[in-house]
Specification:
By secondary structure, the protein is mainly α. The chain has 2 helices and no strands. It has one domain. Helix 1 packs antiparallel against helix 2.
Length: 80
């Protein structure tokens, strides 16, 4: 699933890069614009990875959840 998300991010960001290369010919404007698109790409992929990690942890937690033990108090450790 993360692969599809990254593909979508790349599709949109590559379209922005192509637009910059095609229509912004002035180097003074195109370099900062491309730097901004690159930063957006890194951010979007980091967000996707964090959401994927969170969903994986939550899914694993729900799978391993045991309602019988959910509301019991942990046993106290005996002091020696």
């Amino acid at each position: 699933m993360l692969y599809a998300y990254n593909q979508l991010v790349d599709l949109v960001q590559n379209a922005k890069t192509d637009f910059i290369k095609s229509y912004i010919t002035n180097e003074e404007f195109s370099k900062p614009a491309q730097t901004y698109v690159d930063a957006q790409t890194k951010f979007a992929k980091a967000v996707g990875q964090n959401v994927w990690d969170f969903a994986s942890v939550m899914g694993t937690s729900m799978y391993n959840f045991n309602p019988a033990n959910a509301f019991t108090k942990p046993a106290k450790a005996s002091a020696k």
